[in-house]
Each structure stands twice: as C-alpha cells, then as structure tokens.
# Entry
Amino acid sequence: NPYAERILGIMYVKGQGVPQDYAMAMRWLRLAADRGQPDAENEVGVLYQQGQGVERNAAEAAKWFRRAADQGGLAVAQNNLADCYLVGLGVEQNFDEAFKWYRIAADQSSAYAENVLGVAYERGFQVAQDDTEAFRWYRRAANKIYDRPANTWIHSPQYNIAAMYASGRGT
# Structure
C-alpha cells in the first residue's frame, strides 16, 4: 500500500516510533513514489535536495518535484518545482516556468505561492511593477496560515502587507 509506505517513510524522517534513519526513509518513500503517490514523490525530491539518506542531487530532486507537481493538487510540490526553476536548482533557470508553477500553486490557495507573486509584483520582478496587484496577492496570502517557513529573501505575507499599509502603497 503506497500510503502506508509513505507514512512509514515519514516516521523514519521524523524518528517517530522508529529511530530517525534517512536511508530507511528514502527506501520506504521511494517505494510509495514508484507507485505514483504524489506526496511521497515530493518527499523523495526533498530528500534528494537536502542530501538526506542519499547523495545530494538537485537534478533528481527537480525530477521528483515535477512528477508530483504534474499530478496536480499538491501545491507544495508545485512550489518546490517553481523554486527550482527560479534559482536554476537541478534545472535550467527559467523565470516563466517558475511563475507558471507559482500561479498553479496559488490557484490552489498556497499562501507561499501567493506571497511570492506579491513580491514579484511589488518589485517588478519578471512582471510589470504593480503595487495594487502586489497588495492583492499579499492580502490573499496573509489571510491564511503561511505554508512555508520564512526564507532569507522573502518576508512573511503579514509583514509584506503591513509594510504596504505603512507606506500607503497599493492599498
């Protein structure tokens, strides 16, 4: 059962009920991923990206993120794939492809993707600079639980919307 295999893999990742063992985690997650379980495909990508249980391999990570993202419905995989395209991690850098995947994830209400799109519009990064559009994306994201830890290059949507209110831009 791929769902049970995935759960066992996650237990090994987190050390819940079993000793933490990334190699065993990869073994179980890979079984589930090879059966097309999208959450497991994404998690296999994360293990490759972080070099946990396997040698770090950005191209393999991107491949597994794509497999999960192509199935639809898994915004975290779509965001992971978009991040790969944004910075050229395991794939050729491609801003159009990155923003395509961020929009797909945002259409599924991913606060992370909505926040990234807000940053893009606020800064005019690969889109026409538009404070009103940035504010709209930040507002959508700020009303949700942020589904991604804050990166060093991007503030939380709540911070971003507060900064726009403070400066009177886009409101």
